[in-house]
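Lecture notes, unit on protein representations.

Consider one protein chain, 111 amino acids long.
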Amino acid sequence: MKRIDAMIPSIKRNVVVSAIMDTGAPGLTIAETRGRGSGRRPMVSAARASVRYIAEYNRTDLITVIIDESKVQAILNAIMNAAHTGKPGDGKIFISTIEEIYDVATKSKSM
């Protein structure tokens, strides 16, 4: 089993989730996060729009998918195609190996 973590701009969430689910992924987890990397940070209005400043962090989402190794390339391609703009800040994808999975409800090992 593999774990795919995709850190993408929040604005791309819906299109990336749809692309992942279209590959046949059984499910995913989304965590709303904030980060700071090479992407441009947005201008933010505060206090009834009387003051504008550059946000300290970008809004990002961390999308996690646990999947069989045979589907990794399909999901990787789906994320890349859905999130790609060619500009800094498109995101990062991390792939790692899952050694064991336990179901809390049944207290049993899933793999």
